[in-house]
Design a protein that fits this description.
- It is built from 13 helices and 39 strands.
- It is α+β, with helices and mostly antiparallel strands.
- Strands 32-33-35-34-36-37-38-39 form an 8-stranded mixed β-sheet, with helices on both faces.
- The radius of gyration is 25 Å and the shape is globular.
Length: 676
């Protein structure tokens, strides 16, 4: 197929900007001009700004640090209170800096992407300030004590850089502000060690990866029970990498770990390693999916200890270390639980942990130098609860409970299993009051990169969708990380299985009488945008509407757009003859036009998205408009790939999506009844 819309890849030209502005304005006029929309948008903004929402913090030396947005500070402020006042429920907040002030300092439109405290002197921080909400960011060293930038400190130009503290007076720098520093994926391929007071050109070059790789990263692990270590991760693919230790003299030593494992922590002189494939060492085989503790001494691996091997219906979601403990978040049939181990008498001993609520479980913070964890727990209809878990005394306490945003009485949460085309049972959650075939139902999907989708509190969806008698479905399709082998089952040449799984879920909903195609909308973003758009072009009659957010759609051209080359491990290479036809069949952009009718579709992107190129959304929208006037584009300037913007911008987009869904699904029966 000739790519007649390739010109839309040049997003900075006046022609493309005009095309986007006109399409965006048309969408705004259709879905965001009514009093009902404005009331919806304002209510969502009020909920986002509700002071009763849990302020999730980083704790350093009995001080709680928090990023806060409000109507007064739309870009947000960084503030601090004492741990005692926070636990008492009456935090004595003090503003440390306002993000908006950096617009004038840098002469740019920036948003806070992260604050990295040097944990041994936490008043010194590295600020990551993203350009227009994208991945490219400035790095500035800031003194929270004086409230000012550090003169002559660690300051770096914008780029997809990786900057990390090594100690008080040195940082690891993986630069990405010059094309000569970049891999073909647009990420850093060099590692430098920079001492305080040095210009970048005076730093020590430590490592350089071939630019054909994806990226490098470097950091220091502090060990609560021993000496720190410095590591480099050199990724030749998204899931393939080599780990090296940097010794005191700057020498690097390859560790010889499996090339598809992940180093997820370091404690008691041992690396914590999560395996993707089985690993044979000497006469022992360590199974795929397992968590190991492996002794390390100056680049040489020693004895390995198997901490945990997940079953077929389990997966390791997260790993954290405290001063004395290893803690892992485990998924068991898509519900979270916690496991812990302590280094005792020369071995890792399993430790009992208190029972926690089922659902989504997230480790939100671990203050350096102690054994306290902060945990957030919720499910679809239960608001977040913030817990503090002191592992040393095995004591769990409630710190905060989020207020309810909707009345959940009568709303049932059920987990069903749909049979995919190859016979595999695929789980999904259905949330809603008893309904039937005419129940408007929103189906959300991601299904990629080993990322698990969990039963988080639905908040605004509950308040403005479930409360109206509608239903929500979370599809845990292959490609995600919900189970031990779930990701690899839909990777590369098997990526179509994510699409088949979603189709199976849609059919199962209809077969159970929970809804029917005209009343089902599918929503997915990024990789989920690819999966949802693939179903849309393959079987448009399986749904009544599509919400396709910051998607991949051009699977023959994705490797030359933004960070696309880094995803070959996930999808395959379109330059490979053996993969090209497969990717053409998967590609929503190339499969458009093979059906006679398409339901309404809302496609979103951000012109500052420097991860998934906006052209994926723009080209898909332009081509779809040839066949369907019911196609709409929402494309603001700011926000990047992750929606890093103000609360007003977040509320405006969410309200527009809900207005689109209401018009396409929930109002069609009412209009039909009025005509009768």
């Amino acid at each position: 197929m000739q790519d007649v819309y390739r010109d839309l890849e040049a997003i900075d030209t006046p022609e493309v900007r005009r095309f986007v502005a006109e399409a965006h304005a048309e969408t705004q006029g259709r879905f965001a001009s009514s009093a009902r929309y404005q009331a919806l948008r304002d209510d969502i903004a009020v909920q986002l700004r509700d002071e009763r929402q849990i302020p999730f913090c980083q704790e350093h030396r009995a001080r709680m640090y928090h990023f806060h947005q409000s109507a007064e500070y739309p870009k947000g402020v960084y503030r601090v209170c004492s741990a005692a006042s926070y636990r008492a429920g009456m935090p004595d907040w003090q503003v440390l800096f306002s993000v908006a002030d950096f617009d004038e300092i840098l002469g740019d439109d920036v948003y806070l992407d992260g604050v990295s405290h040097y944990v041994e002197q936490p008043l010194r921080v590295l600020l990551s300030l993203s350009v227009a909400g994208g991945d490219a960011a400035y790095t500035l060293e800031f003194d929270l004590g004086s409230g000012s930038l550090v003169e002559g400190g660690f300051h770096f130009p914008p780029g997809k850089n990786h900057i990390a503290w090594r100690d008080e007076n040195s940082v690891w720098v993986c630069p990405a502000w010059d094309e000569r520093q970049l891999s073909v994926s647009g990420y850093p391929c060099e590692v430098w060690l920079l001492q305080r007071g040095q210009a970048f050109s005076e730093g020590l070059p430590v490592y350089r990866m071939a630019p054909e790789g994806v990226m490098v990263n470097a950091w220091r692990y502090l060990d609560g029970q021993g000496a720190p270590i410095d590591l480099i991760e050199s990724a030749s693919g998204f899931f393939t990498k080599e780990y090296l230790q940097v010794l005191a003299d700057g020498q690097t030593i390859a560790l010889g770990l499996p090339d598809d494992c992940d180093v997820v922590g370091y404690l008691a002189g041992q690396l914590l390693v999560q395996l993707r494939s089985s690993w044979q060492r000497a006469n022992r085989i360590y199974p795929a999916g397992s968590l190991l503790a492996v002794k390390l001494n100056k680049g040489v691996l020693g004895e390995a200890h198997l901490l945990f091997e997940p079953s077929e219906m389990q997966a390791i979601e997260s790993v954290e270390t405290t001063k004395r403990f290893i803690v892992a978040g485990i998924l068991d049939k898509v519900s979270g639980k916690l496991m812990a181990w302590k280094w005792q008498d020369g071995v890792w001993q399993p430790q009992a942990v208190p029972e926690l609520p089922h659902g989504a479980l997230e480790i939100t913070d671990q203050p350096w130098g102690g054994d306290v964890l902060y945990l957030a727990a919720s499910d679809f209809v239960t608001p977040l609860t913030l817990f503090a878990l002191d592992l040393q005394v095995n004591e769990l306490s409630v710190l905060r409970r989020q207020p309810k945003q909707f009345d959940a009485s009568g709303i049932a949460v059920q987990q069903f299993w749909a049979k995919s085309a190859d016979g595999v049972e695929v789980p999904y959650f259905h949330v809603g009051r008893p309904g039937g075939r005419h129940t408007p139902t929103l189906v959300y999907v991601y299904g990629g990169f080993g990322v698990a989708e969990l039963p988080h509190y639905l908040g605004s969806i509950g308040r403005h969708w479930l409360a109206e008698g509608h239903a929500f479905v979370l599809a845990n399709v292959r490609g995600g990380g919900e189970f031990k082998y779930w990701h690899r089952a839909a990777q590369g040449r098997n990526k179509h299985k994510s699409v088949g799984d979603l189709l199976a879920v849609l059919r199962d909903l209809a077969e159970r009488g929970l809804s029917s195609p005209p009343h089902i909308a599918v929503q997915g973003g990024s990789n989920g945008g690819l999966v949802s758009a693939s179903v849309f072009v393959r079987e448009p009659y399986s749904m009544g509407a599509l919400v396709c957010e910051v998607p991949l759609t051009d699977m023959l051209g994705y490797t030359r757009l933004s960070a696309g080359a880094s995803w070959i491990d996930e999808y395959g290479d379109p330059q490979d003859e053996a993969m090209r036809d497969y990717l053409a069949d998967l590609s929503p952009y190339h499969q458009l036009g093979k059906q006679n009718h398409y339901p309404p579709a809302l496609i979103t992107t951000s012109l500052s998205d420097d991860r998934v190129h906006p052209a994926h959304a723009l080209k898909f929208y332009a081509r779809l408009r040839e066949y369907s006037p019911q196609s709409w584009l929402y494309a603001p300037e700011q926000g990047g790939h992750t929606g890093n913007g103000t609360q007003d911008e977040t509320a405006a987009e969410m309200a527009l999506v809900l207005s689109f869904l209401r018009e396409c699904l929930s109002e069609k029966d009412r209009k039909s009844a009025e005509m009768k």
